[in-house]
Amino acid sequence: MYPDLQSVVNGWLFEVKFKAAIEDNEDNLENDIKDAISKFGTSEEILNFNYKTATDEQKTAYETLQSILEDNNMELDELIAKLEKLGLISSDAKKYLRDKLSNGG
After folding, report:
1. Is residue 40 packed enough to be buried (19+ CB in 10 Å), middle (13-18) or exposed (0-12)?
2. Torsion angle of the four alpha carbons 22, 23, 29, 34, in this order, in degrees rounded to the nearest 10
3. What is the pLDDT tens value at each position of the chain, 105 positions in all?
4. CB burial class (10 A; 0-12, 13-18, 19+) of residue 99?
5. How many CB atoms lie within 10 A of CB 14?
6. Concatenated DSSP letters for 41-90?
7. How far is the C-alpha of 33 from the C-alpha of 18, rounded, in Å?
8. How far apart are CA 63 and CA 70, in angstroms?
9. Do the Cβ atoms of 40 and 30 come closer than 8 Å?
10. Entry pTM
């Protein structure tokens, strides 16, 4: 390659976004996780789960998440971090900021 062109090409940085799984409803694990986290508003609601104040749906969802964690040898904070990175759930701070920005501040 020509030296001038090579120096330009070497400086390029590409970023690719892709979905972790195809939305074909065949991935039971993904569907179970999405269904379970849909019962909570934010990641903190899961991390600070209180069985006494939770709804029946949240109790079932939390038990599902615990089962998934055991099956995959993961900790809850690890799963939440991955779900946040994938954009499947947000923290209180991100949700607050998103709500504030979408309502015109």
Report:
1. buried
2. 130
3. 566 667 776 777 666 555 555 455 566 888 999 999 999 989 999 999 999 999 999 999 999 999 999 999 999 999 999 998 888 888 766 666 666 667 765
4. exposed
5. 4
6. SSHHHHHT--TTTS-HHHHHHHHHHHHHHHHTT--HHHHHHHHHHTTSS-
7. 19
8. 11
9. no
10. 0.66
